[in-house]
Amino acid sequence: MRGAVNDTRGTLRVAVVRGDGIGPEVVEATLPLLEQAAGQEGTRLQVSELDWGSDRYLATGAVMPADAAEIVGGHDAVLFGAVGRPDVPAHVAVWGLILALRQQLDLYVNLRPVTSWPGIPGPLRDGSGVDFVVVRENTEGEYAGIGGRTHAGTIDEVAVEVAVHSRRAIERVARYAFDLARRRNGLVSLVTKSNASKYGYVLWDEVVAEVAADFDDVRYEAVFADAMAARMIERPRSLDVLLCSNLFGDILSDLGAPLQGGLGMAPSANLRPGGGAPGVFEPVHGSAPDIVGRGVANPIGCVLSGAMLLAENGLVEAPRALERAVAAAVADESARTPDLGGRGTTRTIAEAIGEALATAIV
Ligand code: NAD
Ligand code: IPM
Ligand code: MN
Known about the structure:
- The protein is of the alpha/beta class.
- Helix content is about 40%, strand content about 20%.
- The protein contains 12 helices and 12 strands.
- The strands form 2 sheets. It has a 10-stranded mixed sheet with strand order 2-1-3-12-11-4-5-10-8-9, sandwiched between helices. The protein has a two-stranded antiparallel ribbon with strand order 6-7.
- β6 and β7 form a beta hairpin.
- The two termini are about 25 Å apart.
- It binds nicotinamide-adenine-dinucleotide, 3-isopropylmalic acid and manganese (II) ion.
- 3-isopropylmalic acid binds near residues 99, 250, 284 and 286.
């Protein structure tokens, strides 16, 4: 935890990267709510705007500056919208920004809670009471960025993408997951494909079993990723902490989004537990080019990521108040955005959250 506001009075230095597509729309709706909630707990947000993203890339050739990690390091946290735009190759935009930040700041945990909300329709017959969290390894695996291509444009063209799984990275994220399960419902489900993979996921199984032995108060199981996808839909309430490699965590957290009401509802935090770097807090969704500029993006994933930002920085009441305010706001169908089946807008749902927040802390 960085910049802890122990006396509940102080200043939190927040770097804001609005980014591309609906990123700026959801951040615009979120920031005043974070300021309001933090203010109610006696904390002021000192916001620095960073113009990183695809516009910057098209203007300068770089999505973010070379000293980005240093700039971010002068803050307590980063609030991030989204990156990606149809006229910039997706891998250029994401490797230039969010993946670079995760690697350069060594944000080795990507925390993605999956929680259902009363009254929000989901795809399951009985989707109430879902409450689990994806702990995603965030620095390597299929996202190592190592590989190459040869015989370009010929029938013999080949691309190689190397997945890297190191004992060090597996062990540290596993310890985080077991520690979290201890404070939740006491079950870690490791997600691998150690039947098809002969090396990387076999190492995961071995290292995580070793870590499990240090947590005899936490139940532990290993589940194959394909079976886990089915279980998330069939028996989501049987889950507590899902410990995943980078790619499986990415895919399964989007699979978890409909259980929360949709991609617009899902929050996340990129963390370096133990300190040394500010966390980067971002909605799970991307830049949603299909709805950009229409004012209908659901800001709640971003708002809840902001709640995680406040909680990680030592605030207690403000994040809880934000969650209660979101629950109250979505209960009113008229304020909901279209993805939640409503006819409201980014602005109407943000206003409803703000109004609920004003009465949430006495
Ligand atoms: P996406 O999450 O942007 O969109 C998928 C679907 O969900 C779309 O139909 C979209 O309209 C809907 N959606 C997403 N967020 C929503 C919200 N807040 N409210 C209402 N509807 C919402 O995923 P995609 O279409 O696969 O990717 C689009 C771009 O975003 C690509 O360039 C991709 O690389 C990038 N991306 C970035 C991030 C990030 O910045 N962290 C994450 C995922 C994808
Ligand atoms: C996410 C996104 C990123 C990922 C993309 C933008 C590289 O999908 O944060 O879930 O795959 O991690
Ligand atoms: Mn994703």
